[in-house]
């Protein structure tokens, strides 16, 4: 039974939110495993380091460990999932289940990012990792299409780790596999002490090869990280970018010091906001922000959902997109992220529609394919 979408001026119910088509640009493959899959794979490969071997207990451990307020502690939870993602069979299973889970949540377009260099402990080479993941993504899409459900289009982004020295190699891998479901390149990991400009050679290579790339910036580190990602490295999108609000003021006061929740700001307050040069450049150039509210709360990049910069930046008409980041660690989904913003930040259907269209406009997908999803899938569902 299909749930009828609400009118554009109403706050949708959880059931209506779940039925809406969604677009997801920032989702880590190794951050979205099913807890039972981790247990199964650990048993298959003989890994005995899991902190729990019962599904609900393991899910609790991931969420509680990630909910620390520290990006470094948050990232340490990935040691457990990476330990069981070292064979082609494991990578294929994880990718397939990821696509199935997203489709069940209403996602119609997804970009799944992962770092091939983190999956070599079992003897695979980089190309074998990419092909194993691609196989799982394809299987997932085909299974969804064969089930009669609304289809999902899924692509991957190959991530280089900013603390390592393989970014040029991963950039070349990206270009080599653009026909294997790979849509682009990303760089991730702890920001402090590892500026994106250290990997300038990789970004210059990608631009010469006309390849798309995004950069994690402005999450744990501030405006200099964003500036380098854009002006030195040429990022097409910003992963997170929440610290961009550090470049906004209201009557001479940083907006982060204004006590009024962003959802309650009046039109006069919004009109009085002054953008610094970097924020103005990001908005004028329509550089997409891949924002992940729940994850940002866990890493301390935002204090609450109501005070998360996504609402202010959306109201100021930055090109904001809504994402999950790591569904396992944050115990979230696209429906969950949308529901939080509706319940705690006053979002209505029009806001959800806008970030969905923004994501598709910003996707690393050919223009005609993006347009088809917007016109044939998103608009009919949101506009009634």
How would you characterize this protein structure?
This protein is an alpha/beta fold. The protein has one domain: TIM Barrel (Alpha-Beta Barrel). The protein is 48% helix and 14% strand. The chain has 18 helices and 11 strands. The strands form 2 sheets. It has an 8-stranded parallel sheet with strand order 1-2-3-4-5-6-10-11, with helices on both faces. A 3-stranded antiparallel sheet has the order 8-7-9. Strand 3 (153-161), helix 8 (167-176) and strand 4 form a beta-alpha-beta unit. Helix 8 packs parallel to helix 9. The longest helix has 21 residues, at 126-146. The radius of gyration is 20 Å and the shape is globular. The chain starts with 13 loop residues before the first helix and ends with a helix. Keywords: Hydrolase, Metal-binding, Nucleotide metabolism, Zinc. It catalyses: 2'-deoxyadenosine + H2O + H(+) = 2'-deoxyinosine + NH4(+); adenosine + H2O + H(+) = inosine + NH4(+). Substrate binds at residues 28, 30, 189. Its EC number is 3.5.4.4. Zn(2+) binds at residues 26, 28, 216, 325.
Sequence-ordered SSE layout with sheet pairings:
Layout: H1 14-19, E1 22-28, H2 35-45, H3 55-66, H4 71-76, H5 78-83, H6 88-104, E2 107-114, H7 126-146, E3 153-161, H8 167-176, E4 182-188, H9 200-208, E5 213-217, H10 223-232, E6 237-240, E7 248-250, E8 253-254, H11 267-272, E9 273-275, H12 277-284, E10 289-291, H13 293-299, H14 309-315, E11 320-322, H15 327-330, H16 334-345, H17 349-362, H18 367-383
């Amino acid at each position: 039974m299909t749930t009828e979408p609400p009118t554009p001026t109403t706050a949708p119910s959880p059931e209506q939110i779940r039925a809406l088509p969604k677009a997801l640009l920032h989702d880590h493959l190794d951050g979205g495993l099913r807890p039972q899959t981790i247990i199964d794979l650990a048993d298959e490969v003989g890994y005995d380091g899991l902190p729990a071997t019962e599904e609900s207990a393991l899910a609790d451990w991931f969420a509680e460990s990630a909910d620390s307020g520290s990006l470094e502690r948050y990232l340490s939870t990935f040691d457990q999932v990476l330990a069981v993602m070292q064979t082609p069979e494991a990578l294929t299973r994880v990718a397939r289940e990821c696509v199935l889970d997203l489709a069940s949540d209403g996602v119609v377009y997804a970009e799944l990012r992962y770092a091939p260099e983190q999956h070599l402990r079992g003897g695979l080479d980089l190309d074998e990792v990419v092909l194993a993941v691609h196989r799982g993504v394809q299987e997932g899409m085909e299974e969804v299409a064969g089930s009669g459900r609304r289809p999902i289009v899924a692509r991957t982004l190959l991530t280089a780790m900013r603390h390592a020295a393989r970014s040029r190699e991963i950039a070349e891998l990206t270009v080599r596999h653009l026909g294997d479901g790979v849509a682009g390149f990303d760089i991730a990991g702890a920001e402090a002490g590892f500026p994106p400009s250290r990997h300038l050679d990789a970004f210059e290579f990608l631009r010469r090869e006309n390849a798309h790339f995004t950069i994690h910036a402005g999450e744990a580190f501030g405006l200099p990280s964003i500036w380098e990602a854009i002006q030195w490295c040429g990022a097409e999108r910003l992963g997170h970018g929440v610290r961009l609000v550090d470049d906004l003021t209201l009557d001479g006061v940083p907006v982060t010091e204004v006590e009024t929740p962003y959802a309650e700001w009046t039109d006069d307050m919004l009109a009085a906001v002054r953008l610094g040069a970097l924020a103005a450049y990001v908005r004028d150039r329509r550089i997409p922000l891949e924002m992940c509210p729940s994850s940002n709360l866990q890493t301390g990049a935002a204090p609450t959902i109501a005070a998360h910069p996504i609402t202010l930046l959306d109201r100021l008409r930055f090109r904001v997109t809504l994402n999950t980041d790591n569904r396992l660690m944050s115990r979230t989904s696209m429906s969950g992220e949308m529901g939080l913003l509706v319940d705690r930040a006053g979002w209505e259907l029009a806001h959800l529609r806008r970030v969905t269209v923004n994501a598709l406009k910003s996707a690393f997908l050919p223009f005609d394919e993006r347009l088809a999803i917007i016109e044939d899938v998103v608009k009919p569902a949101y506009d009634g």
